[in-house]
Task: structure prediction
Amino acid sequence: MLPSSTAAEAEAALGRAMSYAERAWFGYSAGMPDYYLYCHIVPMLLLVYTLSSLRLALFELGAPSIALRYKLQPRVQLSPAAFLRCYMDTMRALLVTIAPLHLLSYPAVKMAGIRTGLPLPSVGEAAAQLVLYFLVDDYIGYWIHRLLHTKWGYDNIHRVHHEYTAPMALAAPYGHWSDVLILGAPSLVGPSIVPCHITTFWLWLVIRQIEAIDTHSGFKFPFNPTIYIPFYGGAEYHDYHHFVGEHSQSNFSSLFTFCDYLHGTDKGYRYHIAKLSEGITALIAKHHHNDMEDKGNTDEDMGDKGKDNKDMGDTVKERKDMNDNDNEDERMDNKRMDGKDIDDKDNEDAGKDGIDMDGKDMDDVGMQGKGIDDKGMGAIHIDLNEYMEYIQIVRKTFRTDEEAYMFYVETMREKGFWCYKG
Result:
């Protein structure tokens, strides 16, 4: 509750006129106890979790053909009942753990110095505080996550969260109740070290929730704005951690990648990426070489076609000359005699020549076009045997055959090739 009861008193206390945002905040919070303001975070987190995760679930269920293009593990497809069960289990865990945690931690937050009054923080102040909170949360969360992957921690607590080896947004906060509390605690350390305004505190926890949903989404979208955040791990980075599961000793960071890099716990993932790139490069070179050979053969066929067309033209010319001679002989014979039988024979021969031209010879010309690719020169044909051969080379780097093919096609397109299934 703000100490000033009127806007004039608030402006007098500030020594300046209130901004539009400060007026709105004053109108909303002036008569509201601080505890109620703090408790806003509970419905906020539940609402953000529901809206952010359900939209991805509906996208996957409603447009599977489109969703599979961006899904990191396309072979894993859950039923609507499985999505609903995950949502209900997670909401139950949040109501049992996160809600009481925030409702009961108010005295500690108040002691830490979280304020509710005026002035509101500037954009620069809030941004600096958020960066610090992210760094602190990521570092502490990294070590807690590593401890949860020890044998005791995994078997007794963390294995519940890893029931989903193919992460999805709804399963971001899914886990054992103690796991939710333990991994959620680092998000409160930053605001305890550097106190902030309650609005910044709300923003921090909401962004942190959205980030957790993003890294567990199971999708790699090319238009995701997080690709511009330096050292941000993202969905693909954390998806590898879930895929390996119990034996994973890689990619423990939830936000950035530098803790894993500094402590050497990203070696498995870097090996995965290196082998993937190596295999893709080798396969591109192989198909590019084959494509050049196919193009050479096509050019040779085109040359043969031109030669055949020239020969055909000469043959037509010769037949025309012969027909002209026959016609001339016919006119001369008609002047000397009425040779009906001879005329019939000549017409018969002319008709036979016409059949030869329209039949066998023209079919030969048509056959010359079979070597031309109707989809354009330089297209690369891909079939199951070709990319399955590649998968066998770097089998451990791929989780699904579909992922291998999709990654291959995407890489080929980036290299400037046209790709399609043969």
In short: DSSP finds 19 helices and two strands in the chain. The chain has two domains: 33-265, 270-421. Confidence is low (pLDDT under 50) at residues 331-397, 414-422.
